[in-house]
Prior knowledge:
Layout: E1 2-11, H1 16-25, E2 32-36, E3 41-48, E4 51-58, H2 64-72, E5 75-83, H3 86-95, E6 106-107, E7 113-117, E8 127-131
Parallel strand pairs: 1-4, 5-8
Antiparallel strand pairs: 1-5, 2-3, 3-4, 6-7, 7-8
Amino acid sequence: MIKRIDHIAILLPELDSGTGFWAEALGLPIEKTEHVAQQKVNIAFLPVGESHIELLEPTDEESGVAAYLQKRGPGLHHICLEVDNIEETLTRLKEANIPLIDEQPIVDKNGKKLAFIHPKGTGGVLVELYQFGSD
């Protein structure tokens, strides 16, 4: 079951180029910034209600995120949905022949499970699934 939109990720060549609009003009606070070495990105988290805007900056020109930026330019990168059971959700998507980037969830350093759905199966939008904790 889908619980909520966790975040919407905006890809930028550098974080500073996005904070002028999102933080300064709109007045969204930057809750925290983080370097995610595994994904080769820096992230700024800006809360919006129970969701976040995530500003992404590639840290390695050879990364998938940098290639995405080169090919498509800055803008919407993905939408992340929180789910109650990521394994069941992935199984349901596989049974529906939806192409997946990650057929098994990845577990991050905080124990959060995540997986990406290929844009070919979603109408052109990269979708990330999250499951927090073991619920």
